[in-house]
Amino acid sequence: MGKKTILLIGTYDTKDPEMRYIEECIKAQGGDVLTMDVSVLGDPTTPTGISKHDVAAAGGMTIDEVIALGDENKAFRVMSRGAAAVVAQVYAEGRFDAMLATGGTMGTDLALDCAQALPMGVPKYIVSTVSFSPLIPPHRLAPDIQMILWAGGLYGMNSVCRSSLSQAAGAVLGAARAVQRPLRDRPMIGMTSLGSSCLRYMKTLKPALEERGYEVAVFHSTGMGGMAFEKLAGEGAFCCVMDFCMQEFANMLAGSLVSSGQDRLTNAGRAGVPQMVAPGALDLLDFAGWQEIPDQYADRPFHEHNRLIKSAVFNAEERRATIREMADRLSASTAPAHFFLPLEGIEEWDRIGGDAYDAEAREAMIDEARKIMPTVTPVTEVAAHINDVAFVDAVLSQFDTWVSEGVVEKGSALDAV
């Protein structure tokens, strides 16, 4: 397995004892450390492996120029830019196996950029005084980030602080030793869906695609899942995407907290990855369980899924607008795309008698899709519900056509897993 090296990032001018304590914990467990100072004003007690001068230079300034800015926020913006660039470069050089950063609001802001600079699968931990805080918007979080609350960590060492830091040291080193990077020994398909009580096509599609020699990764489209999906799509990790759940996309357009960010439905097309797309769960407008439903949605159909999430339903014009935005983004794709339009429902509660059933709004969505989607991509209408076997059959038929035409690479001969 070999000794694992942890990149340790922090402000060594103000947190030198804490950073050295983490370093001692990692080394005591048989790991190694590459230290990186992101301070501005002061200096560490002993030199770090990567200095603040290196970080500032990667941000396009000298440290003296950063100090001369005279503004903590502006200074840390430069240091954040430089730190992310250094992290990406040093990882590409193979100098560390995992990342651990510490901080209050300033350090956390910088650490989030560093985590975003690393590929998925590289362990990335942040020990922060604002871990899990609503101050951190979801789009700042790397899809596989781990955060640990730095209890008692605002100023100086204490037993509470040591508890947090020692756990972080063990967690990041353990992750570096245990992580299994994706094998990439079979072409991978990225698929979006929701829990199987809402969308069930994945249960039939996944084994059918595995039998064809593909690996299938299914992403839970409730915000962070879509971020992970988009990141991997942009990296070219997929041979094809089956993006059949538009719930977080419609949420993003409506300003919901349950969103995967502004780049949703863009990265596969930009990376030249063939896309199959459907409007699954496009009708659901989600709210966190603790939120009050705004008065403007009080007369809509409503579904309370659990204590974490509940949904109102988009009206006819809102669904038309979502379809138009989907078409606009698909039109920019550099690879083939195909749109599937289920005519009898787009999620399980969109059935007669279901909590989210609104026949008029669904027909408006269908009408808009019929008008606009054929101008940007081929369309297959399926006279069935999205959870019916007919939808899966239509998808597999088009997928097999793409494979035969060379649009999607053939699956491997490895046994399905």
Give the SSE map.
Blueprint: E1 5-10, H1 16-28, E2 32-37, H2 52-58, H3 63-68, H4 72-92, E3 98-103, H5 105-116, E4 124-128, E5 146-149, H6 159-178, E6 188-193, H7 201-211, E7 215-220, H8 224-234, E8 240-245, H9 247-254, H10 267-270, E9 275-280, E10 284-288, E11 302-304, E12 309-313, H11 316-330, E13 337-342, H12 359-372, E14 379-382, H13 389-405
Parallel strand pairs: 1-2, 1-3, 3-4, 4-5, 6-7, 6-8, 8-9, 9-13, 13-14
Antiparallel strand pairs: 10-12, 11-12
- How many strands, what sense, and barrel or not for the largest sheet? 6 strands, parallel
CATH architecture of the largest domain: 3-Layer(aba) Sandwich
Going by CATH, the homologous superfamily of the largest domain would be Uncharacterised protein family UPF0261, NC domain
Total of helices: 13
Instruction: Indicate the CATH class of the largest domain.
Output: Alpha Beta
* Biggest sheet strand line-up: 7-6-8-9-13-14
| Average pLDDT taken over every residue | 93
Which topology of the largest domain does CATH recognise?
Rossmann fold
User: Any idea what the radius of gyration is?
Assistant: 24 Å
Give start-end ranges of low-pLDDT stretches: none
Secondary-structure-derived class: alpha/beta
Number of beta-strand segments: 14
**Overall body shape:** elongated
Separation of termini?
25 Å
**Strand coverage percent:** 15-25%
What's a concise summary of this model?
The chain has 417 residues and is of the alpha/beta class.
Description:
The chain has 417 residues and is of the alpha/beta class. It folds into 2 domains: 5-178, Rossmann fold, CATH 3.40.50; 188-405, Rossmann fold (3-Layer(aba) Sandwich). The chain is 38% helix and 18% strand. It is built from 13 helices and 14 strands. The strands form 3 sheets. Strands 7-6-8-9-13-14 form a 6-stranded parallel sheet, sandwiched between helices. Helix 4 runs parallel beside helix 5, helix 7 (201-211) packs parallel to helix 13 (389-405) and helix 11 packs parallel to helix 12 (359-372). The longest helix is centred in the first third of the chain and has 21 residues, at 72-92.
